Amino acid sequence: MAFVAIADRDHEHVLHEPQSFVRKYVWSQDHKVIAVQYAIVAILIGLVALGMSILMRLQLAFPDTFSLISPDRYYQYITMHGMIMVIYLLTALFLGGFGNYLIPLMCGSRDMVFPYMNMLSFWVYFLAVLVLVAGMFVPGGATGAGWTLYPPQAISAGTPGAGWGIILMLTSLAIFIVAFTMGGLNYVTTVLQARCRGMTLMRMPLSVWGIFTASILGLLAFPALFVSAVMMALDSVVGTSFFMPAVASMGETSRHSGGSPLLFQHLFWFFGHPEVYIVALPAFGIVSDLLSTHARRNIFGYRMMVWAIVAIGCLSFVVWAHHMYISGMNPYFGFFFATTTLIIAVPTAIKVYNWVLTLWRGDIHLNVPMLFAIGFIFTFINGGLTGLFLGNVTVDVPLSGTYFVVAHFHLVMGVSPILVVFGAIYHWYPKITGRMLDDTMGKVHFWITFIGTYAIYLPMYYLGILGVPRRYYAYGNAIEFIPPSVHEANVWITLSALVVASAQLVFLFNLIWSYFYGKVADGNPWRATTLEWQTPETPPKHGNWGKDLPVVYRWAYDYNVPNAPRDFIPQDEPPDDRQPAGREHGVKS
Amino acid sequence: MSSAAAYLALLAGIVVWALLVRKLTTKPWEFGAVEQGGVEELPNAAPARVGLWVFLGVVTSLFALFMSAYYMRMGHGHGEGLTHDWHPLIEPPILWVNSVLLIAASVAMQRARWCVSQQHVERARDALIVGGLLTAMFLCGQVYAWSTVLRSGEFNATNPAVAFFYVITAVHGLHLVGGLVVWARTLRRMIGKRPEPIDVRLSIELCTTYWHFLLIVWLVLFVLLLLT
Prior knowledge:
The complex is a heterodimer. Chain A is mainly α.
């Protein structure tokens, strides 16, 4: 017998909407409130990381100008910027924010299957952020070991924050992993067990597929970070030698024996590479839905898109050592990882082709979410193609320590997912708040961000090809091969970064202004098919669906179906003879 | 990393088989491709049961990674001109007793599960109490093993064999402590008033599954410690 746990027993549950402010907005178990809580904290801490990147850029463009930015602080900014952006912003926002908001609504559920645990997940995440921030205020400041936290440097004297800073960073990461595990269990189980009637796996929107697969990746990969964090903390506090080799410095020998720094790198990147896809897969899924909705055309190759998501998820576990070519490894080992890296490019390329083919002959509406979605395709291609260079050992070795890598990973897993985040916020803001974001401000935000991105990162490729090393506080006259144009490029990059950062203030203003004064949105302003746009109220109330859960009759991409009266058919619209399902990929007859 | 990679490959294979192969021919855009208004066949599982199995996947990943790290660290320094600082630990004999205790705890939990399925709530409660107490004894035994190593001349934090012994057993023990919290919540519902079997059946079943799983993990770890 078919079984959907929540849906089948729905009539047994009485919905008790929380009444007090605290239960409604603070200790809330409503997935929508938790999503907004996650998003607000993630964006706030992300702004801190953005501020740090500006400080770094100021130092690089105008060295010896700002006394505030000492070498130690520069390395602390590098470390905190990277860690916050990857873990505390992007992972938390995509899974804790969008995952929480979209999974129950898109799957036709009333909430996550474990609402209490969901609430705990957010508050534990918040605790992780607090511990992370506390690290900036302890003696010695935050760790300055770089976001990869490689030992022996991370816990050796001389590195900024080698005492309390690194301990608090590792503690914060361990707490974050606990929070993520609680959230991830919810996301996976809700998708598996709490879909409404008719919502088969292959009728799920690609946003849900992306978030679902990324959650599984996170659940399997984060333990590697947990293991390495625990072992490094023990090396630092107790004096074990998991990673720490015997080090002689200033005439003194450390208490450690023959630990293996390389072991840490393996563990870290066994988490670190899937982490790229933990961020990317939700972005892939969401951008697919944005493109389809705003091009009024069904997604091209839906099944292939699903398989590609799953294939990328599986392959992401066998490419980790391409981050370690310069650590030294057996050539056969390097060959294996170069090969798997090329293989993972195949399903990724399939997705890019399908996005472009979705746009092909579509009825494209260039509104703000669509602009960000198209901007994502451009940026992801630019960033992704340079990944093919770096995935090969012989090319990676000379480029790995240069700005080429900085440009590559910022474009492919920094800016690209962030563009999707922006597009998604513009797209779902009307559902979350009941008001539209201002269109003009949105377009200003997009164009400055998009063009500014290239003004920042294309010169970085140039710097990388010149061989300009990354991670340097200042170049001075120490590196003779660097021509004067490098400094000019650095000034240009910094000015561009300042402009792009300023544009984000427009976005923040828009978020707040539109909440109070934005145009009131109807329930389905984009005329979309997916279930979240079919709720009885906008914003959806506690329990999402009123008395009865929706029933799904079709997939999520019935746009421009031949002979249909409208150019979209919602998933919960029953079939009749006049409204057939979208055959032949929805191409107009 | 190799055993972790093998585990993940196996898991990926299962996922591919479970999700994709069955769906390979589904064309959701076609009319009637999926039964109208119906849902596909899913295992008849409560969310808590599915949630537990997903969690067990996470825990498996955690221990597989610890074991991978164990093997890699053990081999570090061999033939590389580096200091080989791994000095095998002689495991305290109490670990054998502890293993028997945990096996007995698992058997008791299984009996609780069987009793509640036969509607014998009181017998199930007794078995549950026995299972919990045996587990607590196992944990005490583990602490005793730690103190044995600490008092012996073998204790040296920089010896990775010793450090791994403490870390791995501590992580395993913490998982059991977490299990005991759920065990206590289940027991509280059975002691206050006379519950219907249906009220506690799922909790006991999930506890039992968790105990069996942690027993298997312990046995694997114990064999690993003995062999190395």
